[in-house]
Amino acid sequence: MKSNKKALMLNRKDDIAVALSPLFPGDQVTVKNDTFCKQIDIKEAISFGHKFAVRPISKGEDILKYGEVIGMANSDIGEGCHVHVHNLEGKRGRGDKIDKN
Amino acid sequence: MTRIDEFELLGYRRPDGQVGIRNHVLILPTITCAAQTAKRISELVDGTTTFIHQHGCAQVGTDYEQTFRTYVGMGTNPNVYGVIVLGLGCETLQALKIADAIEKTGKPVEMISIQQFGSTLDAIAQGAKKAAQMVQEASLEKRTPFSFNELIVGTECGGSDACSGLSANPAVGEVSDMIVDRGGTSILAETTELIGAEHLLANRAADDHVAKRVYEVIHAMEQRSIKMGVDIRTGNPSPGNIEGGLSSLEEKSLGAAKKAGSRPLMELIDYAERPSKKGLVWMDTPGHDIEQLTGMTAGGAQIVLFTSGRGTPTGSPIVPTIKIATNTAMFERMNDNMDINAGTIIDGDETPKDVGIRILKEIALVCSGKKTKAEILKQHDFGIWRIGPTF
Lengths: 101, 391
What we know:
Chain A contains no helices and nine strands.
């Protein structure tokens, strides 16, 4: 992790990267790890520590971080867009999803 | 730099052979009705410690047993020289039974019952006299060298942010591996915050039984929220976690699991239970910071490593808690509370291994007497994981 890098992608399978400094629409960020390198156009403001999509994600798809599932997209998410509680749903501990009958 | 294996640890050898890194006289109220009396005794006598709680009566079954085990574990923790057990008299959890269980370690134990001794003021007078004598005896104890293989280190994260899984938790994972490689014990806890990461731990289980237990405790914890008919996200991740960039419990869990390093999972133990194996062990606790800290303390941990992104003051009345910041901004803002900065990993200045070595060095210093920030601020937090209703 170099201090001049603004985002971190933890695993080549990941759908998101983590902003290591605040990012703004119009910023261009190079996201890379051992086998992946891509320039992402940031579309929305991303706070420090928050996530953005490194590729387009479709509604219903699993979202991966650390190479593992952290939840599911509940709407289509464009590359460079903020990924957070408004468009990512946890899949575990979902008592609200249980059929009450 | 000093070689890790040259770090010197100096602690107090107890009658049962364990080593404490503090030398407290604990005023242990085994019922909420005695907690204020315990507090007053502790205020009168320097060298004592105590805590406030709201339990000890009208409890049954496994909930009774868990609370009983927690009180006994606080008393038997090797950081405690001796204990004044303080009861009321008529309560469900009887002080005498708890005192008897603690006494088996061979450490000094006295029992005070408010009803039996006359009244609050009589209990304070008697308790303070016994405590004063015990503190003077404790003050004669001397620190002697001990080894990492005699340490039980608790690990915990609280007030997590998106940096937790990138900086402080991987650094603690490095420490966990270093402790385990030196024959010591590292406790992973907070079952709630391992939901979504359980497969990674089960794959490292020492045998099939441990792997099966991993899935059992995760299932039981997840079912608690499912039975309430709610999305667990209404309580965990918390609003502060979400503001810090964590979007789901699974994401938080995958970051939390980094504290467990990479060594095999030897055992899965109940809340406030003492590990029977060395190496990495998992204690079944909730994610609630203070209930988890209390469980690990009662399980015999002499020291706890506590990572935080949002910043938290939490500490224990008997166990030093080394606070590790996940980001430099919070470390600087909450410097009164934080002992170590792991934000240097985010800044690109250090690796998790570098920070892990710094933490191990701090463990050696704290074990030998250096006070942590939470100790200096008298952050004497205590909370029992209740698993049944009050009757």
